[in-house]
Amino acid sequence: GQQDDRCRDARRTGQIPRIRPLCADSLRKWRRQACLALVLLLGLAAGAAPARAAAHEYGIDQHYGSIGFTVSQLGLFDVDGRFTRFAGHLAIDQDHPAATRIDVMIEANSVAMAFDGAVTMLRSPDYFDVAQFPAIHFISQSVEQVTHDHFVIDGILTIRGIAHPQKLDAVLMDEQALSGGHRVADFRVTGTLLRTDFGMTAN
What we know:
Elements: H1 2-13, H2 24-33, E1 34-43, E2 49-52, E3 57-61, E4 66-73, E5 77-83, E6 86-91, E7 101-107, E8 111-113, H3 116-123, E9 135-147, E10 150-159, E11 162-177, E12 183-194
Antiparallel strand pairs: 1-4, 1-12, 2-3, 3-6, 4-5, 5-8, 6-7, 7-9, 9-10, 10-11, 11-12
């Protein structure tokens, strides 16, 4: 339907809609009718700092990247959120791209949105249930190189203790060599998931 079309459009274009403040009434509607698809807009390695340059290994955290998500409301407009605390590791094998590995851990309690009521709801047992499941984890299983700067990542995403296959689309935006043999890589990684796959079934 229209909701699915908007979610596919967001994933294809990679556009991040402007955040719109939520009033209490719109939050109640969101609880009942939010689009089941969350479009992940992940800067997993945006400006990542190298951990070991010779091996093309990069550290990932909130100082050098961002992890955000977009929720479509009623198929009419989108609301953005983000996670403010995360850490991970990216190992790039340029000669054998399929051997590239990525591992990211997100603090679920660090979820942030423009409206405090939405944050409280997302931290609750109906959604991320941060008290019982404090971490969100993604680890890659395979990487396919489509072009020299475009990759498809298949991995396992774990939310609320539920592990589910997740496909991500990654584009290398920029890569630079710095002094001292260090390197910086800028990736844009996107994907789509259904919250119901992770037990978030509240209306």
